[in-house]
Specification:
The structure holds two protein chains of two kinds. In chain A, strand 6 (154-158) and strand 7 form a beta hairpin. Chain A has seven helices and twelve strands. In chain A, helix 2 packs antiparallel against helix 3 (74-103) and helix 5 packs across helix 7. The longest helix of chain A has 32 residues, at 26-57. Chain A has a five-stranded mixed sheet, with no helix packed on it. Chain A has a five-stranded mixed sheet with strand order 4-10-9-6-7, with helices on one face. Chain A is of the alpha+beta class. By secondary structure, chain B is mainly α. Chain B has a single domain, classed as Cytochrome c oxidase-like, subunit I domain (Cytochrome C Oxidase, Chain A), CATH 1.20.210. Chain B has helices at residues 27-31, 36-64, 75-110, 119-141, 155-158, 163-190, 203-235, 248-281, 289-302, 318-345, 355-378, 380-386, 390-420, 426-453, 467-497. Chain B is globular. The chains are: A alpha+beta, B mainly alpha. Chains A and B meet through helix 2, helix 3, strand 7 and strand 9 of A and helix 3, helix 10, helix 11, helix 12 and helix 14 of B.
């Protein structure tokens, strides 16, 4: 019996091309999905067959041939209304029940703050590190995301969890889930947010509780900032720098830098800032330029002078728009965006490759 | 099969009055005309252009989506392109198409009137629409905008692209829509011929009437909403942008308060055309005339209370979601009433297979499957996964875009002999219809699966495992495009070279086929009296020389 149910589930999921079921709610939602799709498709196919049958049987067969008037009794309309209505209401009630479940956060949920902005996802654990692009959660424990946006509306969408919630500037929205299988799951931004919308992706990494605890402890104790917490170190000696980095990050958003430069390695209008510092960029003139503090500052004030090959002369000058401390803070922010993997291969492709579905 | 000619005009139709096309000549006689039939042709020319423009934008999008990354355009161009596709198709094609062309041409003829109630206002409607189209096209050439046709704030109020001309174009188009609605309501109320009581009104007019009511009641809301978004963009008034203390969700509520009923502004006229085609080609009275007419008003009314189903993931309360989800289900009921009655009308019929009826069968298919996917989307917990994915795209292209396109093109093939007095090549029309229907189904069926997999809409680049379904969709989009182009060419050749059409080449029972083809300038030589039901065969409607 259990085997048959599992077989049915797997079979339907494959036919309908649904992703993995990796959250507590996903199998339940999918059961309703199969029910609704099976009945609506059977109904629609039945109606199509009736149409084809009538069409074949009652073809026009002569010049003056006129069809017979057919007046069905009131029962026809009663059945036509009540049949679909019964199913529609049933689906409505199950769907509403599930929606209430999706909206009701368990009390013991672990909290993670999520910030969406053009075009990245940032995750912050109340008592731990920050992370960009990767949300690590323990398997089997409810996680509540407290989400807000810094600029326009985004939407946090995890297909494998069957969950989605808009992320709105000026308010916090909540989304909760319990991951049921260890693995890495794609996160999409589902609300259109501009040029980099389709690259505003991230991943949820669900790990066994013990592994998660180890990771969390490492993050707190690590003296060197790791990739995930690279620009907000808790380490005391770097405090001053961290403050400047945070300031720079804020400025980059406010001054519009992030409208064209990504910070996660994805391709945009301008070169990505991830791993930019100390990278050897090829210029449009063919020369090679080491990206250092002076070059970054020059590029803000006189952007078209030394263009990176492959990018258009589209950036406006920030001369007079940035004070010296502001440009310094942005430089510090860029310096903090280090990714060892990308230093050797400048400006190429997205940093994040989504995992294939099994 | 071909529709042959009436060799010479029969004596009774050797009109004392010349037809409306030849009644006057000169460019000004067209541009300043107040004849509803000529205004309909002005609409026909304009919507044909906007339709093919919107179609070209769609093909550009589909071509870009052949590859997961950069194909033929960059991300900014892609974002502008899907905005232009949406704005052009919704505001400049689907909203005005069927009411503007068939509503204008046939409403007065079907009720036995000489013209609409306010002929000059009718011309103003057209010019407001034309002004909106020109302003919109100018805005597109001027740089375009990348907000999507939904103009969601605060993106639209902070974008650096040229959003204002597009907002203004949609705003002006709203006035055209309202004026047309008022004109049609007054015309149906006041100008019906003797004997044409409400239960004798052709179903096309019931749907035009329902549409007009929505146009008059809902359009002002989108006007004021777009105006506020424009003001916000300029002055930062802080209505929708939280950076200035506004509420971005308020915009979504106001936007969908219009734009959900607007779906019925687009699709109810298509339902009306379908009823006419079923009535004409089953060659027997329609089943469930009253139910079809009443369900139109069910949809029009309930459609006003369903807007919140666009906001299931935006953060409304569970109670709100429940109410909107429940009301949305009722729309499915009213739509299924129509479909059941249309299919039942084929029972014991004598089905006359023609290209317009083939379009109708394709329309049935798209409406049934698209409508059922709508019921699935109205199921709240399922919508959480599907919201803003390709599933939604596939759903509304099946039922709304598919419905309007198939019934616009099908209706054009049906009424073409009446409008122009010419016949087109039926064989080629059939080939085009098959291509269009296959193209539609093939383009959007893979998109349902893409949505299931979680592919979000408005994505310029996508993970590579989505590529196969995208390529399939694009191939069929080209087939769809070829079908539509073939249909257009075939109609144009018919217009230039086609044989003359008789008054009633289909043997249809409806009132409009009693007039000469094309009708004279004032429609009728004597004031008509209507003494029968619209779908009642009297026995004399013989298909002229059909074989």
């Amino acid at each position: 019996m259990i085997f048959a149910a599992a077989f049915y589930n797997d079979w339907m999921r494959r036919i309908l091309d649904l992703p993995d079921q990796a959250s507590s709610i996903a199998p339940e939602v999918d059961q309703l999905h199969y029910f609704v799709i099976a009945v609506t498709m059977l109904g629609a196919i039945g109606l199509t067959i009736a149409t084809i049958y009538f069409f074949a049987k009652y073809r026009y067969r002569g010049k003056q041939m006129i069809g017979q008037e057919y007046k069905p009794g009131p029962m026809f309309e009663v059945v036509a209304v009540s049949g679909p209505l019964a199913f529609f209401l049933l689906w409505f009630f199950i769907g509403f029940h599930q929606y209430v479940e999706i909206s009701s956060v368990p009390d013991d949920a672990m909290e993670v703050y999520v910030m969406g902005k053009k075009w990245m996802w940032k995750f912050a654990y109340p008592d731990g590190p920050n992370a960009v692009g990767v949300l690590r959660v323990p398997v089997g424990r409810p996680v509540k995301l407290l989400m807000t946006s810094r600029d326009v509306i985004h939407s946090f969408f995890v297909p494998a969890f069957r969950l989605k919630k808009d992320v709105i500037p000026g308010r916090y929205s909540e989304l909760w889930f319990t991951a049921t299988k260890p693995g890495s799951y794609q996160v999409f931004c589902a609300e259109y947010c501009g040029t980099g919308h389709s690259m505003m992706r991230a991943e949820v990494v669900a790990m066994p509780q013990a592994e998660f605890d180890t990771w969390m402890a490492q993050q707190r104790n690590s003296p060197i900032p790791s990739q995930q917490d690279s620009y907000q170190s808790k380490n005391e000696p770097q405090r001053g720098q961290a403050n400047m980095v945070v300031q720079g990050e804020r400025l980059a958003g406010e001054k519009g830098c992030l409208k064209c430069h990504s910070v996660d390695g994805s391709a945009h209008i301008g070169p990505t800032w991830l791993g930019l510092y100390h990278r050897a960029e090829r210029l449009s003139t063919g020369e090679t330029q080491l990206v250092d503090e002076p070059y970054i500052t020059d590029s803000m004030m006189n952007p078209t002078a030394k263009l990176v090959a492959g990018y258009g002369p589209v950036m406006p000058t920030y001369m007079g728009k940035l004070t010296a401390p502001e440009s310094a803070a942005i430089v510090e922010y860029i310096k903090s965006l280090r990714d060892p993997q990308l230093q050797a291969q400048p400006s190429e492709g997205p940093a994040y490759e989504p995992g294939r579905r099994p | 099969m071909s529709l042959a000619v009436v060799p010479e005009a029969a004596p009774h139709e050797a009109a004392q009055e010349p037809d409306y096309i030849r009644a006057k000549s000169g460019v000004l006689s067209w541009l300043l005309t107040v004849d509803h039939k000529r205004i309909a042709l002005l609409y026909l020319g304009t919507v044909t252009i906007t339709f093919f423009l919107g179609g070209l934008f769609a093909l550009a999008l589909r071509t870009e989506l052949l590859v997961p990354d950069h194909g033929i355009m960059d991300a900014m161009t892609y974002n502008r392109m899907f905005t232009l596709h949406g704005v052009t198709m919704v505001f400049f094609f689907m909203i005005p198409a069927i009411p503007g062309v068939f509503g204008n041409f046939f409403l007065p003829i079907m009720i036995g009137a000489h013209d609409v109630a306010f002929p000059r206002l009718n011309l103003l409607s057209y010019y407001l629409y034309l002004a909106a189209v020109i302003l919109g096209l100018w805005g597109m050439i001027h740089g375009g905008t990348d907000t999507g046709w939904t103009f969601y704030t605060p993106y639209s109020t902070t974008t650096t692209t040229a959003v204002l001309p597009i907002l203004a174009a949609a705003f002006i188009n709203g006035f055209s829509s309202i004026l047309t609605g008022v004109n049609f309501i007054v015309t149906i109320h006041t100008l019906r011929a003797d004997g044409l009581h409400w239960m004798r009104l052709p179903l096309f007019l019931w749907s035009i009437y329902g549409t007009a009511v929505i146009q008059v009641l809902a359009t002002p809301v989108i006007g004021i909403t777009l105006a506020l978004a424009g003001v916000e963009h300029f002055l930062g008034t802080g209505i929708f942008d939280p950076a200035h203390g506004g509420d971005p969700i308020l915009f979504q509520h106001l936007f969908w308060f219009y734009s959900h009923p607007a779906v019925y502004i687009m699709v109810l006229p298509a339902f009306g055309v379908a009823s006419e085609l079923v009535g004409a080609f089953t060659r027997k009275p329609l089943v469930g005339y009253k139910m079809i007419a009443l369900s139109t008003f069910g949809i029009a009314f309930v459609g006003f209370l369903a807007w919140g189903h666009h906001l299931f993931t935006s953060g409304q309360s569970a109670v709100d979601a429940g109410v909107f989800g429940f009301v949305s289900m009722l729309i499915g009921i009213f739509t299924s009433i129509k479909i059941f009655n249309w299919v039942a009308s084929m029972y014991k019929a004598s089905i006359y297979m023609t290209s317009p009826f083939l379009y109708t069968l394709g329309f049935f298919f798209l409406t049934v499957f698209g409508g059922m996917s709508g019921v699935a989307l109205a199921t709240i917990s399922l919508d959480v996964h599907w919201q803003d994915t390709y599933f939604v795209i596939a759903h509304f292209h099946f039922i709304m875009a598919g419905g309007v396109v198939l019934m616009f093109v099908g209706g054009l093939h049906y009424w073409f002999p009446k409008m122009f007095g010419k016949l087109y090549n039926e064989g080629w029309a059939m080939v085009a219809a098959v291509l269009v229907i296959l193209g539609f189904i093939g383009t959007f069926t893979p998109q349902f699966l893409l949505g299931n997999e979680g592919m979000p809409r408005r994505y310029y680049s996508y993970p590579p495992h989505f590529q196969f379904l995208h390529v399939t969709s694009t191939i069929f989009a080209y087939i769809l495009g070829m079908g539509l182009l073939l249909a257009l060419i075939n109609l144009i050749i018919g217009l230039i070279n086609g044989p003359r059409a008789g008054n009633n080449p289909w043997g249809a029972p409806q009132y409009e086929w009693d007039t000469p083809s094309p009708p004279p300038e004032h429609n009728f030589s004597a004031t008509p009296v209507i003494n029968r039901d619209p779908y009642e065969y009297r026995g004399q409607e013989i298909i002229e020389n059909a074989n």
